[in-house]
Backbone:
């Protein structure tokens, strides 16, 4: 039997790969997707979706344990079944993974469960993947190949996962609540799990090498978040570098270092959240002439084309930020560029980053410091959420909205929000940025009252020195 | 019978106009809104747009000829009329088929030298071969940067070419789609958005479209610079104000300042890499040009050799407190030297940003006084003209001027072997009353060191 032939074959069925495949099918391409694990990739199975389910449980817990009293609600002894908390999260992931399988089928996309490797500019070799049946064919041919293999958890050299040492992947299925846990790394993943475990009563310590939480984010925002975590009883150790990890009886001893002074922290579990790295190795890319950037990211041009003209790459495997919606958007862009219905280029500065602990964090574009470093003169409007009627009424007044605009025209080039529902209201700024709106449009569009979104309007007015409620 | 096209009154004070160029020729079909000619007036060069569809029948006023307002300059006939046959009555009733370009020939005083039509218009009118006539590098009037002007955005295969991409939109009952940012920026730049081609949904104009338009406009001007229309053999040219100023100052400089010249070759391999990597990473909003890199390097070198940042006076040598670097920019009838004030305080991206703004103003006008005065050192860059080597005339009362030539592939010796390197010749002209050979030589070595180790420019 001759090898099946396609217009486009994607490796990876995460939010990058499956979305690109569907868009390609809509554009009349014959498409195959190869996946070695479950359809949906990290996002659906080991990332965004199951972790949001857990965080939703944590918020419920926080409300019942903490805020209920302020509402005048008497709650008796609060008990929980942690196994059910984890099970609900897995059920959400399973449901969506089945959804992806259905969507691929509906769009006439051939789905191969196999390990794929590039064995030529137009050929993928398929090998049997772990826990899967052997693939129906040994290789497939395709006019173009799309690498959408995503990223994996990073570990420090010498670290081993297991026996209470986890990455986010293990933590998502660990159905025993740790009594105490050290979270190494104060990035998005570390903070979300720290919040989750804290809400269920674990003793949580966060260790971060940098001097602020969320390195690279706006410093004021990071400080606001640190205070919110302290208020919730989390121990936050900034400027502490990880040195070593050792078993000590029933617990783990984590040795950290702050400017030469060593400290040890003991805890039952350790969560390693020191970032993610691209999964670009062992795909046979070198043989096809594909080049790499530092850190193993695949080198692409502004059409998402690698240094091998028939091979494209998108998502976590090409560049940060490592975000599901960025991968989907890049996948769509790449396929549309291939089809000639879109011009090359992609605006990374309009990709919002969201963190779903409480208070939530949502940012897009440049921070004030970024802008100044680029030589852009800016004006900044900042509104604390306690100035908003809605925030006070619903008892969620921590946090602020900060809007960064160019001094010259008031073009909104960045926004940082920390607070309740931050991740839902940021989209207004993303849309405004895409439409090249200025502070005038944000400030003069009438926002409904009372809502959290009024914070964005007031921040825009504040940038021009015209805030009404602050 | 045909329709007469007469010389329009394009400004309050205009009495006559000269045809710079016909963009349409007899027999060409003219569409409403299309630019058909360029006219030089007392204020500025303007473009004429067709007011109706038709066919250009006869040109009555040739290129380079002048005629009073109201004089017949060409005739057109309606599209449906046979050549030379009687007029179509429908067209005869209409207004003369010409009108000044909207927004350019308005009654209010135009904002300084009025911009010309976008090069795209000219290119389209002249035929496709003219568009890439010059390497994009040459469009960067301000610098030797082989980057500054990208070609117009590529149209995706299959997308239909709009029939009248350049026809003005907006005032004709059609809604002009433009982002708020583009509107603001256009207002400030004095650009009529109806001239700009939008690439967004439904032709919506974004800031990038406007930026492209402004760059193309510059490209167009530059093309005119290198194929000047002036200089008819046997003719006499009147001195413009700018010409007179240049004549006075350069003559005074050569008369009073004892010039001497020092030249060195700079290895630009690393600077080229730096520029490319800055572009690739899009770390800065502004594109960094070679000119910006050279300005930054000069600022650093001048800080170490303040004697070069000085002026000669009979009472003594004045060492200036700030490093204000002027850079020569070619304009239509001469050159301007906009000044980057206090370069010692500016980072590379800040220099790029300020320089790009000044260059944009060079073609549009609107300089403030301190943007054109107070220079303590000047750079003249002819790199984009492929110049091998030249020496510049000092701008009094400065102590020196740096002449920058093109970056070229030249044989260089590395580790005892001949290799192909990218090098650039720079020549410093010095006022011998202030500076002696040793200082000039050392300064040049210092400048060379910064340019050959350009990471230092980012600190």
Residues:
């Amino acid at each position: 039997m001759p090898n099946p032939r396609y217009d486009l074959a994607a490796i990876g069925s995460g939010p990058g790969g499956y979305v690109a495949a569907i868009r390609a099918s809509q554009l009349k391409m014959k498409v195959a997707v190869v996946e070695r694990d479950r359809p949906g990739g990290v996002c659906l199975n080991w990332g965004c979706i199951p972790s949001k389910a857990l965080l939703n449980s944590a918020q419920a817990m926080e409300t019942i344990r903490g805020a209920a009293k302020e509402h005048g609600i008497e709650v008796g002894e609060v008990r929980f079944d942690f196994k059910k908390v984890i099970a609900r999260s897995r059920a959400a992931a399973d449901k969506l993974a089945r959804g992806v399988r259905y969507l691929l089928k509906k769009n006439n996309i051939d789905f191969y469960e196999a390990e794929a490797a590039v064995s030529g500019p137009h050929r993928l070799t398929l090998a049997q993947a772990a826990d899967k049946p052997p693939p129906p064919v040994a290789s497939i041919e395709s006019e173009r190949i799309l690498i959408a293999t995503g990223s994996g958890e990073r570990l420090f050299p010498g670290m081993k996962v297991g026996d209470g040492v986890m990455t986010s992947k293990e933590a998502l299925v660990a159905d025993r609540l740790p009594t105490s846990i050290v979270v190494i790394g104060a990035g998005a993943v570390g903070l979300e799990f720290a919040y989750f475990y804290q809400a269920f009563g674990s003793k949580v310590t966060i260790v971060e090498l940098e001097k602020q939480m969320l390195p690279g984010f706006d410093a004021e925002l990071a400080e606001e978040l640190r205070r919110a975590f302290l208020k919730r009883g989390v121990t936050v150790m900034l400027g502490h570098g990880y040195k070593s990890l050792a078993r000590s009886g029933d617990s783990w001893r984590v040795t950290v270092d702050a400017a030469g002074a060593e400290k040890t922290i003991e805890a039952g579990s350790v969560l390693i959240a020191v970032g993610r790295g691209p999964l670009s190795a062992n795909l046979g890319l070198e043989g096809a002439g594909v080049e790499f950037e530092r850190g193993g990211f695949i080198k692409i041009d502004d059409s998402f084309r690698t240094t091998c003209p028939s091979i494209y790459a998108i998502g976590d495997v090409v560049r940060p930020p490592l975000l599901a919606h960025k991968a989907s958007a890049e996948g769509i862009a790449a396929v549309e560029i291939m089809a000639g219905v879109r011009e090359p280029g992609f605006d990374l500065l309009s990709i919002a980053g969201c963190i779903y602990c409480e208070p939530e964090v949502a940012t897009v574009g440049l921070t004030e410091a970024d802008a100044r470093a680029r030589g852009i003169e800016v004006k900044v409007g900042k509104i604390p959420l306690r100035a908003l009627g809605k925030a006070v009424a619903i008892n969620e007044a921590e946090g602020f909205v900060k809007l960064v605009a160019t001094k010259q025209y008031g073009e909104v080039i960045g926004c940082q929000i920390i607070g309740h529902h931050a991740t839902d209201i940021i989209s207004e700024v993303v849309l405004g940025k895409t439409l090249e709106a200025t502070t005038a449009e944000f400030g003069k569009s009438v926002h409904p009252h009372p809502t959290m979104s009024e914070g964005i309007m007031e921040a825009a007015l504040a940038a021009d020195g015209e805030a009404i409620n602050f | 019978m045909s329709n007469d096209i007469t010389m329009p009154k394009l400004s309050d004070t205009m009495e006559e106009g000269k045809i710079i160029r016909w963009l349409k020729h007899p027999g060409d079909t003219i569409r409403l809104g299309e630019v058909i000619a360029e006219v030089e007036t007392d204020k500025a060069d303007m473009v004429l747009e067709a007011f109706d569809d038709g066919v250009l029948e006869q040109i009555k006023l040739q290129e380079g000829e002048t005629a009073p307002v109201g004089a017949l300059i060409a005739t057109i006939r309606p599209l449906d009329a046979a050549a030379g046959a009687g007029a179509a009555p429908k067209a005869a009733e209409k207004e003369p088929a010409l009108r000044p370009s909207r927004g350019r020939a308005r009654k209010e005083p135009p904002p300084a030298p009025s911009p010309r039509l976008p090069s795209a218009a000219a290119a389209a009118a002249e035929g496709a071969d003219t568009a890439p006539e010059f390497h994009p590098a040459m469009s960067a009037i301000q610098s030797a940067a082989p980057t500054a002007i990208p070609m117009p955005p590529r149209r995706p295969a299959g997308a239909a070419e709009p029939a009248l991409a350049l026809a003005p939109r907006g005032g004709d009952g059609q809604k002009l789609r433009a982002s708020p940012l583009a509107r603001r920026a256009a207002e400030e730049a004095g650009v009529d958005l109806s001239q700009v081609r939008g690439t967004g949904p439904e032709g919506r104009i974004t800031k990038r479209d406007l930026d492209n338009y402004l760059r193309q406009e510059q490209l167009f001007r530059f093309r005119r610079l290198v194929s000047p229309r002036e200089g008819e053999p046997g003719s006499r040219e009147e001195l413009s104000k700018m010409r007179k100023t240049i004549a006075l100052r350069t003559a005074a400089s050569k008369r009073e300042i004892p010039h001497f010249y020092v030249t060195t070759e700079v290895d630009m391999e690393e600077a080229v890499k730096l520029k490319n990597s800055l572009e690739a990473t899009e770390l800065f909003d502004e594109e960094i040009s070679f000119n910006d890199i050279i300005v930054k390097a000069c600022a650093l070198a001048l800080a170490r050799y303040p004697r070069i940042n000085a002026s000669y006076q009979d009472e003594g040598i004045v060492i200036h407190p700030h490093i204000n670097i002027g850079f020569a920019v070619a304009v239509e009838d001469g050159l301007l030297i906009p000044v980057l004030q206090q370069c010692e305080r500016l980072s590379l991206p800040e220099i790029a940003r300020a320089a790009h703004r000044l260059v944009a103003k060079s073609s549009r006008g609107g300089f403030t006084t301190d943007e054109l005065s107070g220079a303590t050192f000047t750079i003249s860059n002819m790199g984009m003209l492929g110049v091998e080597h030249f020496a510049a005339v000092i701008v009094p009362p400065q102590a020196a001027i740096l002449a920058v030539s093109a970056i070229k592939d030249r044989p260089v010796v590395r580790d005892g072997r001949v290799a192909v390197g990218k090098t650039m010749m720079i020549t410093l002209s010095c006022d011998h009353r202030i500076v002696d050979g040793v200082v000039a030589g050392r300064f040049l070595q210092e400048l060379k060191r910064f340019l050959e180790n350009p990471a230092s420019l980012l600190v």
About this structure: The mean pLDDT of chain A is 94.
